Amino acid sequence: MEIQVRKLTKEMADAYLNYFDHDAFSDHEEWSACYCLESHLSKEENDRLEIKEERRQKAKELIESGIMSGYLVYEKDRVVGWCNAGEKSGYAPVCENKEYTAGDSLDGKILVVYCIDIAPEYRGKGIASLVMEQVLKDAKAEGYRYVEGYPFINRELEYQYRGPVRLYEKYGFEMCRAGERVYVMRKTV
Q: Which is it for the CA torsion 188, 173, 117, 102, positive or negative?
């Protein structure tokens, strides 16, 4: 398996959309309108955009405007995964929700890992680890002080799209806070 983790660019918008159109949730059609918008839209806007095509268009706009950031995972020319990651200040719903804070004030930039989605047939093959390694490497090179993630407290949930707790533990993230649904886990880079 020849896997590459590439930072999302505007030119990759069609590859991103194709991944969400066909592969991201091929095992869960009910999630197929996700397009990883939750971290960028207010609850009201997220609820209002119910039609898949509207959500798809909004994702395209966010990518083309540079607001949506993260990584596409390729096997050769095929996208097989996605990681929504970027500067915490660019994630208004995250910044405004107390569940995603550790109750401390930090100096320095924070990179958020909000979602890690791997196509069903590629799960369990270590791809999320490759993604995390690239995120941590880039965060350090780009002058981030911390990387934060928000894995679900309920480890029995079928789909751990925030990344499982064990992934964060593997890379030295520390538990900062347990909210109602998610942990705030952080690593100094």
A: negative
